[in-house]
Amino acid sequence: MSSVTRESYAEATDKLATTTTKATAAQLATVADEILSVARLLRAEPRLRRALTDPSRSAGDRADLLGSLLAGKVDAVTADVLTALVRGRWSAPNELWDATERLGVDALLSSAQRADELAEVEDELFRFGQVVAANPALAVTLGDPGAPLERRVKLVQDLLKGKVRVATGKLVEVALEGFGGRSFEASLSRLVELTAAKRDHEVAYVTVAKVLSDAEEQRLASTLSDKYGRQVSLKVEVDPSVIGGVSVRVGSDLYDGTILRRLNAARQAFAK
Q1: Looking at the structure, do residues 51 and 95 belong to the same domain, yes or no?
Q2: Is the pTM of this model over 0.85?
Q3: Count of domains forming the chain
Q4: Of 114, 133, 148, at which residue does a domain stop?
Q5: Do 89 and 137 fall within a single domain?
Q6: What residue ranges carry the coiled-coil annotation (predicted)?
Q7: Across the chain, which distance is largest between two alpha carbons, in Å?
Q8: Residues 198, 113: contact at Cβ < 8 Å?
Q9: Looking at the structure, do residues 5 and 110 belong to the same domain, yes or no?
Q10: Of 215, 221, 111, nearest to 171 (Cα)?
């Protein structure tokens, strides 16, 4: 986001926080659904995006235009939050769409937080990503932007029915739509990270050759927490092909101490 966009987005998130202080998890979920529905409308209607970000229009005119579209169709809280969003300044029309989608995700995460389910949602998103990655046919089907979205959503709903929290299922649907213009796989990863951030945690993706013991996980999490100055949420993948050692990725930082990496480095050295 540009600095202008970040400022406008921050005003909307502040509005969301102040107007939902006493809202229940269910009420927040409704607001999230409505904001995400508006994000989908903005995705489909480029002319509307341009009209709602037109710098030649006053903030009041843009707010009135949005109000005429939403009148009687959404909760008052949703209308207030989205009005705050369109009254802001935007560097490009697409940034309004991205911000609206992100705001809907924020509301959905707030709903899960209010229900004390954030940790479970984070874990369910990660584990579903692992399931998809382990099934190439499923990965291709869900990640194909050319396939009808409704068909992919229905497939995910059938796969997850009764197995995950409601918020998890909705976030997976957001990933299917290509959250922030990302691929399905990248969208899932980003949503895992945003869920962790909502708990003030950093995500560490860990790859090992065999399952870590509870004590080993605790030691690794403690070491990383000390290094990054905040709690770390480990996402562990078991991959026997690394042979031994540990690979850890936190954001753009990669610490690869696997035997596989050492063997590859040795091969490259000999090749020279």
Answers
A1: yes
A2: yes
A3: 3
A4: 114
A5: no
A6: none
A7: 71
A8: yes
A9: yes
A10: 111
* Domain limit, last residue, from 99, 114, 129: 114
Q: Report residue 76 as tokens.
A: 């008052």
CATH code at 141? Answer: 1.10.520
Tell me the per-residue pLDDT of 3-47, one tens digit each, with 9 for 90 and over: 777 889 999 999 999 999 999 999 999 999 999 999 999 999 999
Residue 251 clears pLDDT 80, i.e. is over it: yes
Phi-psi region of 243 (alpha: psi -120 to 50; beta: other; left: phi over 0): left
Q: What is the pLDDT of residues 158-177, one digit of tens each?
A: 999 999 999 999 999 999 99
Query: What residue numbers bound the domain in which 175 lies?
Result: 117-199
Q: Please name the amino acid found at residue 20.
A: T
- Statement to judge: residues 225 and 175 lie in one domain: no
Mean local confidence (pLDDT), 139-149: 95
Residues 92 and 19 in one domain: yes
